[in-house]
Amino acid sequence: MKKKSTLTILCLICVIFIASCSDLGTPQEEAQAPSQTQIDASSAHPGFTIKADASHRDAVSALYSAIYAEEAPKFVEKEADLLVVPVTDDEFDRGRIPNQFLPDVAFINQSDVPEVLTFIDFAISPQGQQVLIDAGELPGKITLTDQAGNSVVINLPVKRVISTYGPATSFIYSVDAENRLVSASYLGARDPKGSAFMEKIDPRFPGLMGDDYFTQEDFNLEQAAALDPDLIVTSARTSWLETAAQLNLSIFLFDAETPDRLKEAILLTGEIFGPQSSAYAEAWVAYYDEVINRVQSHTEVTTENEKPKVLFTGTEPLRVASGEMYQTDIINAAGGVSVSAGLSGYWNDVNLEQIVIWNPDVIIVPPYGGASVEAITESPEWQILDAVQAGRVYKMPKLVVPWDTPAPDSVLGIVWLAQKLHPNRLDVDCGEEAAYFYNTFYQFAISPEEIASICQAD
Amino acid sequence: MLQFARLINLLIMSKKQLISTSLMVLPVILFGISLTLGRYPISPVDILKVLISPLNPEVAADIPEVAQQLILRVRLPRILAALLIGASFGGTGAALQAIFKNPLVDSNILGVTSGAGFGAALAILLMGNTWQVQLSAFIFGLSAVTMAFIGGRLYQSTPLLVLTLMGILVGSLFSSLTALLKYVADPLDSLPAITFWLLGGLTSITWGRLIPLTIVTLTGITFLWLSRWRLNILSLGDEEASTLGMDPLRSKLWIIFVTTLLTATAVSASGVIGWVGLVIPHAGRLIVGPDHKYLLPVSISMGAAFLILIDDVARVLLPGEIPLGILTGLVGVPILILLLRRNRTGW
Predict the structure, then answer these.
(1) Do A351 and B315 touch (CB under 8 A)?
(2) Which residues of B touch A12 (CB under 8 A)?
(3) Residue in B with minimal Cα distance to A368
(4) Which residues does chain A have with pLDDT short of 70?
(5) CA–CA dist A349, A335 (Å, integer)
(6) Are A394 and A373 within one domain?
(7) Same domain as A237, residue A175
(8) Could you tell me if residue A212 is inside a domain?
(9) Per the CB 3.0–4.6 Å rule, which of A223, A343, B232, B328 could disulfide with B275?
(10) B90, B281 in Cβ contact below 8 A?
(11) CA-based nearest residue to B271, from B327, B196, B342, B186
(12) Cβ–Cβ gap A350/B130 under 8 Å
């Protein structure tokens, strides 16, 4: 009898163990320290020439003497190797992110002297930011209002950040501040394909992935303290804010579920990380607006009734996006109408009869949660729908971050959807835009094959 | 005088029979009415034509293809599923309350629902939303009861009491495991799927899923129907049953086996739908009394009627579906409280 009971208890323990294995699987991996541009302070005086306004010369001198051991830079009136120019152009300028080292002031490299590049890299790095703060050219702390309406005081430069919110992590990557991350939660990096791409984009990704310690529900105080962060960024819906408050750290909250809030969130992220990141943030916002305007100019002639009706389904075919979700904004921006815009809240379960009444022209499935086009097209019940009959069921693409989430990548979701909705009327190309976007905002040289497989995927 | 008493007796009996017979027609009537209800408007005449169309296609020639497909492929299987699952919960509830001699027992007494819930959550987490979820729910539902049995066999005395205890233990074990899975699930994708599943719903019913459900449910319910006189004897107690020449344990185990199979099948098709198995037998007792000759059939048909009705509300009221588990709870709890207050019928 004793044997039997021991066996039973063993069985129970086994079940518990197996079920919790997913929780125990990954061994603790120390997040690597952020790689930073290390400059040897005793470098020889390179002697390149700089052209700068009198108002910017102090800042340039401070940077210069920080690298070249108290040497003064050579300022000239014209024909310099390095120009200091104000950034005034608010228009979208494809492919050009200014090397902004002060707010709205940037360097332009006019020579092929390698020291100039080193100098620029230093100026826009956190150490350069520190030099400019010490020289009184940049503020040592800023107060920003986060998206939950709290005033947050942030000490600059921010060098060590914990992001526990996937979208916030993507904001940080898009403003070229990913080297400041010490732990992060990622969107779309759980599947093998997503994590492989994420590792290509940032080799530090496996060490940075912090889901074992930090999620929206869970916050490991000791791990956080051990990482010694300057700032924690997370979602306004996070449940552990009071716990984390014990660390006496700045916590910045994001709540970006609409296009306007998304733009605001990215601009705020830029401000947190300094002038260079602000330049990226402004470039992204300008690009986003430009894409939306370009799509609209091609689809404008369509009256409200002629716009294609779109159904955005979720992790199951009968789960649909509500009108309050960002997916509806993407559909509108792409020149369509969401049939389920009248629903409120988050994902809603509906029945097929309701979908038949809506009668969508196009059905979109998301690139996560095991959703598939086949689940709809191969179901005999769904054959009643015109969209299925016409073969207009498509899967939203993703590289890492799904293109339908409120993240920088969603600009591509708009382009892709607009092409699907208005096949012959648009001169905006998914492949072209994806190449530009990933090269510019993730500094990831995506291959033509990869682009083709992403944009063609349906 | 004696004849008069007999006549009264006969009248009472026939009244009971009348009630139970009319209650058995109820699901059929509701079935017909429900076919005409839906977000998509289709007239009752058209529905009749479509239903005849498999025999004579010309009848439905003037009805739009969409309407025909909706009735045959969406409404019909779904309402049939509501009928079968409701009947299954009502019948298993009545049978289990009888053999455990406890009015607070429902189909989850041996942890089958908790097990199935865990199985579904595990499959959603690991494999997404497909037929694997159904299969996994079914397998874990049966495993939960098997575990309760293995645990119950550790003691020789009063096996049913130990079985109940083990059922509660296994049930809470699986509830904890489900909570663990929900905790590790991705809040943006698998967590809502698990939550929706645990609340129950019939949106995903198709003919393919209905066929196994129909076979198991009809066989199981027929078995329960045939054992309804046994339930009367078993509800008297083991000694009385033995005196009447019955092996009480054997009969009980058979009934537990069949109800487990019924519940696991129903839950794996619909998700967790609470309260039907608990409340319906009570409502039945209030109407026809504790005699299982009437109570069992009435519980079965009332369960079917109740779930058809609840599912009508779930699919028609709003553009978005309302989870069945929420509706049955909202309606089921007040009924139970009312019944417990009017505690004057014999159990």
Answers:
(1) yes
(2) 147, 173
(3) B189
(4) 1-46, 89-92, 95, 301-302, 457-458
(5) 25
(6) yes
(7) yes
(8) yes
(9) B328
(10) yes
(11) B196
(12) no
Which of A:189-208 have CB within 8 Å of B?
190
pTM of the model as a whole: 0.79
Domain count, chain A: 3
Domain span at residue A316 reads: 301-456
A90 and A194 belong to one structural domain: no
Count other C-beta atoms under 10 Å from residue A230's C-beta.
18
**Which member of A1, A347, A353 has the closest CB to residue B154?**
A1
**A292: part of which helix (H) or strand (E)?**
helix A275-299
Task: Indicate yes or no: CB of A343 within 8 angstroms of CB of B320.
Answer: yes
CA B68, distance to chain mean position in Å, is 29
Do the Cβ atoms of A384 and B203 come within 8 Å?
A: no
Please name the helix (run of DSSP H) or strand (run of DSSP E) that holds residue A152, with its range, or none. Answer: strand A151-155
CB contact under 8 A, B70 and A384: yes
Question: Based on the number of CB atoms within 10 Å of its own CB, is B99 exposed (0-12), middle (13-18) or buried (19 or more)?
Answer: buried
A4 assigned to some structural domain: no
Alpha-carbon radius of gyration of chain A: 25
Separation of alpha carbons A340 and B62, rounded Å: 30
Mean pLDDT, chain B cut into blocks of 10 residues (347 residues total): 65 72 88 89 86 81 83 90 94 90 80 90 78 87 88 70 85 92 77 82 85 93 90 82 80 88 89 84 84 90 92 88 84 71 55
ipTM of the complex: 0.73
Residue at A386 is within a domain: yes
Q: In terms of Cα–Cα distance, which of A176, A177, A183, A186 is closest to A162? A: A183
Q: What is the pLDDT of residue A284?
A: 94
The tokens describing A390, both together, are 């016409």
Domain ranges of chain B: 45-341
Q: How many CB atoms lie within 10 A of CB A358?
A: 19
Pairing of strands A231-235, A250-254: parallel
Check which CATH number belongs to the domain holding A361 and give it.
3.40.50.1980
Q: Residues A122, A145: one domain?
A: no
Is the CB of residue A354 less than 8 Å away from at least one CB of chain B?
A: yes
Please tell me whether residues A106 and A195 are part of one structural domain: no
Strand partners, A106: A85, A100
A353 touches chain B (CB under 8 A): yes
Query: In this structure, what DSSP letter does residue A319 have?
Result: E
- Domain end among A286, A310, A341: A286
On whether both A191 and A234 belong to a single domain, the answer is yes
Burial of A94 (0-12, 13-18, 19+ CB in 10 A): exposed
Dist. CA A167–CA A328, nearest whole Å: 18
Q: Do A12 and B204 touch (CB under 8 A)?
A: no
User: How many angstroms separate the Cα of B83 from the Cα of each of A112, A242, B86, B94?
Assistant: 80, 49, 5, 17
Which residues, including other chains, have CB under 8 Å from residue A208's CB and lie 6 or more apart?
Answer: A31, A32, A181, A182, A183, A184, A202
A14 part of a folded domain: no
Q: Do residue A317 and residue A437 come from a single domain? A: yes
C-alpha span between B103 and B105 (Å, rounded): 6
Nearest Cβ partner of B193 from A11, A15, A316?
A316
Which chain B residues contact residue A318 at CB under 8 A?
203-204, 321
Cβ atoms A267, A278 nearer than 8 A: yes
CB A159 within 8 A of CB A129: no
Q: Do A375 and B130 touch (CB under 8 A)?
A: yes
Domain boundary among A134, A152, A186: A134
DSSP secondary structure string for all residues of B251-310: HHHHHHHHHHHHHHHHHHHH----SHHHHHHHHHHHHH-S-HHHHHHHHHHHHHHHHHHH
According to the model, what pLDDT value does residue B160 have?
Answer: 74
Q: Are B297 and B20 in contact (CB under 8 A)?
A: yes
CA distances from A411 to A18, A226, B224 (A): 41, 36, 60
Same domain assignment for residues A336 and A429:
yes
